[in-house]
Design brief:
Strand 1, helix 2 (about 30-35) and strand 2 (about 45-50) form a beta-alpha-beta unit. Helix 1 (about 5-15) packs across helix 2 (about 30-35) and helix 1 runs parallel beside helix 6 (about 145-175). The chain is about 45% helix and about 15% strand. It has one domain (about 5-175): Maf protein (Alpha-Beta Complex). Strands 2-1-3-4-5 form a five-stranded mixed β-sheet, sandwiched between helices. It has helices at about 5-15, 30-35, 55-60, 65-70, 75-90, 145-175, and strands at about 20-25, 45-50, 95-100, 115-120, 135-140. It has six helices and five strands; from the N terminus they run H-E-H-E-H-H-H-E-E-E-H. It is α/β, with parallel strands linked by helices.
């Protein structure tokens, strides 16, 4: 049976692309899932576990004003973490997790509030990541369950973005082969 991490490694290997991970509440679980897959060294560039808010700013280049105004548990923070780790570690894809696993609320957010993000290859003219996506999660369960589900969710989001990019590329190639629209 395949796992999301195994599917990520397989798809990125086929595509010749790489991934880097920025983690907060998951504390290394996402990187551990990916590196548990044989052959992960072909696609996994590395990870940054930026548990402390100041490290999100210093290492991942998350905007200091954003962190001051909204705190670390925010969809834009997750998106900037994904872009920051992608750029810092020289990967094609960056993924990130930030949220509240408990036992107490953080930054005005209740336990189970999680944001996961993907930053895809390249940038638009405005500097935004191509194929970027952020998802908000409201999770229940123990601290361990919230962390595990957050790791699973960010890998699933990455798989979704890779699949949607493949579908788009296949449509473009099909259009070229068939002479237009």
């Amino acid at each position: 049976m395949s796992s999301p991490a195994a599917d990520v490694v397989r798809l990125l290997t086929v595509r010749g692309e790489t991934v880097a991970v920025a983690e907060s509440l998951t504390g290394g679980l996402v990187a551990a899932e990916i590196t548990s897959v044989p052959g992960a060294s072909k696609v996994f560039r590395g990870s940054i576990t930026a548990y402390a808010t100041d490290l999100k700013r210093k290492l991942l280049k998350v905007d200091a004003t954003l962190l001051a105004q909204r705190g670390a548990v925010d969809p834009q923070v997750a998106a900037q973490m994904a872009t920051g780790v992608r750029d810092l570690l020289g990967a094609d894809w960056g993924i990130a997790t930030t949220g509240v696993a408990g036992p107490d609320p953080q930054d005005g957010q209740p336990v189970g509030t999680v944001f996961v993000a993907v930053a895809g290859p390249g940038r638009t003219e405005t500097g935004a990541a191509h194929d970027g996506k952020t998802s908000a999660l409201r999770l229940n369960g123990s601290r361990a369950e919230i962390r595990r589900e957050s790791a699973r969710s960010v890998l699933a989001l990455l798989l979704d973005r890779i699949a949607s990019q493949q579908t788009g590329n296949e449509r473009a190639q099909d259009t070229e082969r068939n002479g237009g629209f």
